[in-house]
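LAB NOTEBOOK - FOLDING QUEUE
OPERATOR: T.R.
BATCH SIZE: 2
PURPOSE: Compare the predicted structure-token outputs for two unrelated chains run back to back under identical settings.
PRIORITY: normal
REVIEWER: second-year student, initials M.K.

ITEM 1
FIELD SEQUENCE / FIELD STRUCTURE:
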Amino acid sequence: MNEPAPLLVVGSVAIDSVRTPLGEVKEVLGGAAVYSSVAASFFTPVRMVGVVGTDFPAAHLHFLRSRGIDLRGLQVVEGRTFRWSGYYDFDINQAHSLDTQLNVFADFRPILPDDYRDTPFVLLANIDPELQLQVLEQVRQPRLTLCDTMNFWIEGKRDALLEVLRRVDVAFMNDAEARQLCGTFSLVAAARRILAMGPRVVVIKKGEHGAVMFRGDSHFSAPSYPLEVVCDPTGAGDTFEGGVIGYLAKTNDLSEENFRRAVVYGSVLASFNVEAFSLDRLRTLTHAEIEARYREFRRIAFFD
């Protein structure tokens, strides 16, 4: 098997406060870059770029380093770390924001250490597309680039987002975002239009209903793993993306078949993430548990 290739993840690092019907937590670790990096770290070495304030707990840094995540690209700036608070009702696909404090994240400019620039796999997590473009200007001939986005950027930074889509290999977004970007209710039509914008692969996240991948003239639909306990859906999409690109970086195989396996591994990681608040389930997760659930995923999705 090929040696795992390094992965660069650029995005937000946050302190979250979350309430769901099953409980509430305050001031816990969060952020798109964190969820993606931790998920990917089960498969491949990760280099994370982001910003935190001087109030960021040392325990969080210790946890990230314990996952083998390279934090030389994490800026520590005088001030408070980005904070988000929100809640979920029984529709777990819909987060309701209560408060967003950008703090030091408001002035974040991604600066890559020189050796980061040659990282072969790059994940541009959900941040301002103008910042995503700044990263793309700094990396040197990556093998695979992926981006995520959200409705806020589709509405407010559409031109920059379209430029990002023109330049990346894989685009992630959820079903509502794909419909909004393309002005259609059909996910198939939306995916075709996004492919025409530049990416070679489009992966549409459907929350508890799984994910669908479009590549060329083919598409692949993966279900979600059936869970008895769903505690906190925060970061599930970011965990999914980290699992997908982490597995691709581990195998260094960009074939259609391996992309399909990667989507399933991403779904497996996301299914574990929602079983506890914050990243608590990923803290105790083992490779054996990942492989066991992957095998169960194959069994429940088998069709002949």
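ITEM 2
FIELD SEQUENCE / FIELD STRUCTURE:
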Amino acid sequence: MNVLFTHSYFYKFDGKQWRFKQPYPPLATILAAAVLRNEGYSVSLFDTNLRDDPTEILPVLEKVKPKYLVIYDDGFNYLSKMCLTNMREAAFRMAEESKKLGCTVIVSSSDAADHYEKYFNHDVDYVIRGEGEETLKELLSVLEKDQNVDRVQGLAFRQEGRIRINPSRAVIRDLDALPLPAWDLVDIESYRRIWLQHHGYFSLNLATTRGCPFKCNWCAKPIYGNRYTSRSPSHVVGEIELLLKNYSPDYFWMCDDIFGLKPGWVQEFNALLTAKNIKIRYKIQSRVDLLLQEDTLDSLAQSGADTIWVGAESGSQKILDAMDKGTKVEEIYEATRLMKQKGIRVAFFLQFGYLGETQEDIDATIRMVCALLPDEVGISVSYPLPGTKFYDKVKDQLREKQNWSDSDDLMVMFESTFNKKYYKELHRYVHGVYRKQKGYFSLKKLLTNPLRLNYKDLRTGLATFYYIPTTFTQGLKLKKLKLDSHSVKV
């Protein structure tokens, strides 16, 4: 009962992410491995994150000789939700090579849940739909007993040339009952070397929750669904203690869609860390409206929250409403003010190209960024994911290209206000304007209080002289691309 786990995300196949040099172990993959190990299976891991090619699995297959290959993507990594074709092709190749050696091939991923027929055409035997641990455990038990898989919930498979889709499985409600991830399967030192070389510190990832109850109509939830389930603060603190003891990370990425949504959770988490005298630094993802509730920001700051990424998305209320975001532009301003006041770094996710977005809406977003000057920005264009209302609105416009090849693709795949070249250039322009504005702020700091200026501020300030002409040129190019878009539509 030998099971080899892997996943389909190769950082080196995603140039943008590989340039960041911030790799994280495949958390969901090693958690599923821990679940099977608790059931008595012999488990091993082929971690693709830092590999060069999917064929590197071949010597591992020869050595391990697994009965089952489980391609279990990390559902806690937002990049895997995007169903990038580079990663899909890698999964196909690993499945095909494993099948040649007689393995039963099982896949659990966002992409496979949406396109299981594509995976069956590349030697995959079973696709797990939704949350995977219980389905995988039951599937292997049934297969080992040579029983029929017809009653295994959450499963898709091919039978007598036809695709069968079993009923969905309910999500796990007691996350504390799950074992901690099998961290020992990961070559932690290979991750540490990259982080230390490029950033001077080492970060690890952990998840405290699953799912998201909010209704943003462009956000797909193929694995954990629209429900929100949380581990207890004590369970999370226990994992933090284990990671600190065994691997000594300097930093944590809490990779939840929404961190600390449950009332009182963040406060209890902070109290436990304080009682145990555990001092950590970490980053999270949240919503601006949640951050304005009660003493949430105080507890986050006290517990070590260093950076908070928020889905600002747009500076236009019209666009936020069209997205069913459920937040207000003024909440973005107020939450940003409070985070800065409490010494927490602010990071914005921004999204351009949503249906109905005009130049005025784009300008409102740029004004918001320049006014608030978050510490980081992540810019994308609207991406239609199957299973979302947004996808249903534009699916008839999608042509042959329905997925990005990597996260830097930034291709608009539907009929938007402007053409695809415009949004590519807009991405560069907004980054440039943002950096130019930060440079102005640093130069102002230099003039008003030169003794408080540090090297980072000086470098940011000097960069202003690069971005002034650059953004001017980009602005002219954007105007031309805007006119080109309109001429094509006419």
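REVIEWER COMMENT (ITEM 2): The chain has a mean pLDDT of 95.
FOLLOW-UP: none requested
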